[in-house]
Each structure stands twice: as structure tokens, then as C-alpha cells.
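Task: sequence in, structure out. Protein: SH3 domain-containing protein.
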Amino acid sequence: MRLLTCFLAGFLFAAVPLHAREWPVPADTGVIGVDTAQLEPQYWIDRLPDADRVVLDTDAIARQNERLLALDKSIHDLGALPAALPRATVQQWVESLSTPPDKPLFDEHGQSVPHATIEAIVDNANVAGVPATRETRFGLVVQRAPLRAFPTMQRIFSSADDHDIDRFQESALFPGDPVAIAHESRDGAWWFVVSPRYAAWIEKRFVALGAKDAVLGYGRKTPYRIVTDGEVHTVFTPEAPEVSELQLDMGVRVPVLADWPTSDPVNGQHGYTAHVIELPVRNDDGSLRFAPALLPRREPSSADYLPLTKANIIRQAFRFLGERYGWGHGYDARDCSGFVSEVYRSLGVQLPRNTRDQAVSPALNRIELTAKDDRARRMALVRDLQVGDLVYIPGHVMMVIGQIDGEPYVIHDTTGLTWYDRDGTAHRAKTNGVTVSPLTPLMASREHSYVDRITNIQRIRK
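Result:
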């Protein structure tokens, strides 16, 4: 099961450390060091002397993505998978994720989940039923879909009063994401799939099976559109419900049918007010076909990935400001690592899925910190943080958006912030969403600040 990340980063402890400065808590926000002007992206962009300078050009980004595929063990090269998957490989994938729980669990009503129920869920994974070899099949995801630790949609929590951290929720996949099918649940309703960035269980109804070339070639089709808002939706159409009001999240790439005749309606509607795009659809027999759909011109999208500039990093991050925190992409939203991944995806940069992999990825410009790094070195690195830098503490990631009087500010998807007055009074803002805050006054435990807990800084640049 997925490690607990992001959620505990702002947990309240009875801490009393003193800070080097007295931070204001504006009455209009109730958050330390943040006033309403700082909730606008332009505030941060205007502070930058080189906001529109390209940090990495298209070729440099392509090389970095190639390094990610070649060097990062959390990334799967679907094109390199063998024609048949051996039992040992598939069992290792499944068993590394679907670990039988050994602690009491609770349902969404706060009731204890019977041991027999958990046993049945684990049994449905059918690890013992993995054949000696299985033909490697491929598919495209047809709508945003949850990735689960076990083949079930039952929500499972570690405590009776928790309603946010579904322990079986891992991540999500999006329309057009390619997958390799590795295993099937005992009830036949789920597949264990391997996507480029994650391997987990998905309901079969969300995946259309197709030829390898068609599946892997979909994401290379040109021309295309890149979704640049937090989410957009295709046009409603009763003629083709499978592509009607389909959600497309930031960074999703969809092919454009540029030669679609202007005289031909698209699903009963003239296409001149929209982009005619091509989407994967699942036939009744589970096979793949492609269908036209309309992406309204009013919905923010771009003919290519946005240039990787500091201004665009800030603009894209602020498109999620205030969105509810969604553990493992729950609540139709995202968590801390999903948030930074999708911001960078809209700029063409691929990142690993989880904080534990992002933080140590050898494909990026990693600055590692250990227990040997004293407060002076840590503060020197913090003062030198640049816009777009990703700052990692155990289980959490923050994106730098600028500095005010030498104090770095970050935007991050978190359940809350904890800080203390000089007299030791504890304060907690349960932000539970994408949040702007200063970095240095935030506390991670009774004795340690966020700065004390930094493990890595990843810099997306040459």
C-alpha cells in the first residue's frame, strides 16, 4: 500500500521552539506570513527580474525526460516490456503493492472492517493465480480512473475519525494514458496494470485493449493540444456519451483531428467553436477504438507544452490554489506530489509519481541533505532556493514561488500548517488544500522545523 505522504506534513505537535523573527498573521487570511495580495500569481511574477526567461528549452526537456526513463527505477518503459510477462515479475509487482494489512482498519462510517472482509479483498487479488507466463497486453485509459492498492473500491481508513486518507487509494490515470495489463482479479472486474509512472489495480471498464503500436503511438500523434487549466471538459453530447463532458486534467495531451471537414458535425454539433480532438473509447467487448470529441476553445489549452519559465511555473501552480487536498488523487483532485507533477507536466517535464521517488530521482538536479548538515548549511540552501525548486521533507513536497526579504515562500498541497509564537503558543491552520505559505516558520514536529527535516531539493534546470 502507498506510504502515508503529504497528510502528516502539517500535523499539530505540542511544540515550543522560538523563531528568529516575529511573523505576522494577517487577519484577512489567518495564515502566518500570507496576505491576500500574495494569493495572486502576478504578485510573485512581478517580483522576478527574469520571469519570462526560458529555463529549459524543448530539447533540454526532452533529454531530461529521456534520462528519467533510462535512470529512474520508478519509471516503466512500456515499449521495452517482453512479449510475455513471467510469473515472478508479475507477482513481485502485485505483492509489492497489495500487502495484506496487519492493523485494524475502518470504513467510511467509522466502523471496524471485519477481518473476513479484508481477507476477501486480499483474496480477490489472486496472487497465487498468476500464470507461469502471460501475453503482454496493452490498453489506453478512457477516463480519469482511480488506481487502487487492492481490486476494490471500498474506502479503508486507519482510524474511525479519518475521512481523507483512504489507505487503498494509490493514484489516478487519465484519458489517453497507456498501460500494460499484467494480471486479473479473481472476480474478473479488475486489472493490475503497469503505467509509465505507477503499477496498481484499475477497474477494467476504464481501459480499452488495443494493439501495442496503437496504444503507445497515441501519445505521439500530432498535432495535439495540452490542457493548461487544472481541469477542462469536453462538450456535452448525447450522441456519444463516452466522450461527453469528459474531464481532462492539467498536462493531458490529446491529438487534434486537424483535417476534420468543417462541413461535418462532430457528434451532432458544428466544430468551429472548439478543437476537434481524438479520444480513446472502450467498445462493449473491451476493445479500443478512437472517436472525435469537441474541446471548447474557451477551455484553456495550448498547441504545445507551455515554455518552461518561472512565470509559467507560478501561473500553472496557482491554477490549483484552494483545490481540496486529494490523497492519491482522491476527490477528483490531487495530493502534494500529484500537484507538482501536473504543474510540470503542463510544461513538458515528467516526474515520478510519489514523493519518495521524486525526492531521489537521479534524472534531476538533486541536492541531498542528511543529519550531518547543520542548521547553518540548511539555512544557506534555503536562502538560495529558486522559483520552481521542489523541496522535500519526509512524506511531503513543496514548490518554491519566490522570496520576500530573504524568506522563501512555497505553494503546496497540504492538510494544514503548524507554527508557534515566540511565547510557545501553538497555532494550526487546517488548509486542507493547495496552500501558499512561508517555509521557515513551519514546524514538522515538537523539536524540528520543516527546514530541519529537508531531505532533498530537486532543481528542474540545466
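DSSP finds ten helices and 26 strands in the chain.
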